[in-house]
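To: structure desk
From: M.T.
Subject: fold request, one chain
Message: Could you run this one when you get a chance? Sequence is below, nothing fancy, just the single chain.
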Amino acid sequence: MSNSTQDVIGIDIGGTRIKAVLVSAAGQILDKRLEPSVNDRAGLCRLVIDMAQSLAPSATSIGICAPGIAAQDNRSLAWMRGRMQAVEGLPWQEVFPKAWVLNDAHAATVAEAWIGAARGKSHAVMLTLGTGVGGGVIVSGKLLQGATGRAGHLGHISINMDGPPDIVGTPGSLEDIIGDHNVRDRTESQYSSTLDLIEGVNRGDPAALKHWHRSVRGLAVGVASLINAFDPEVVVLGGGIAESGATLFDPLRLELDSIEWRPFGPNVPIVPAQVGELAGALGAARFAELSTKAGLKDNFPISVKPQSHGGH
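Reply: Done. Structure tokens follow.
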């Protein structure tokens, strides 16, 4: 437990676990707690209050993130599809007066812009590649949330207008070409998960190579489209699928060599996320800290320019 008045709590509410961190103003994790998630509102509130109190009863602000769409005032989660219903509409400011709420992929993007792979960048795109595909966009150093909080749901861009509709009705979405949720369907029941598919790739299985190439090609098309839309300095890939390392990044970069528009020569770097599994909680803490200071969402820079240490 810390007594600093600058410490902030970040809480990431997932379907299986809740992750809470106490973070210094410099981004150092001072303490953390991990607990199994609960899906009834009263139990969830009790658990989150207990976790926050045990970390820092007098924290200056609390950031909370979860899947779904945050409300326009960033005080609650306005939309959650079909799961974790206890979180949807829960007015966190009634529980914690200084609470601020973000989508979990947005929060991870904030963390990467603060202390991770996009540190010091004013323009960045992040994709979280897991069961589905989430994302976030930093524009001019600020998190892009859009008119309703829907911005940054990059997994739902279309890369095939003739493809089947995804969970939100988008035909041929990026999420459905690379996400883990439908690997069995898109590999004709030959592989049960992305991990299974990648193991096949690493063994040199022809079927695995064929299916993986299609998925990576689709991801490359999506990334190239996002580069054209947002003109980022860097694209960050996080989530479990990105942990496959060179098996993903090498063919992805090769595909981008043939399709990325490079009017000024250099390619946009495609890099792995750095912050890790606590990125959501850390980003939520950072967003809450800045929101409390600014009083208005989006009216502050998320990214931090690296400190100069002299020399050239």
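Reply (cont.): The chain has two domains: 8-108+286-294, 119-272. Let me know if you need anything else for the meeting.
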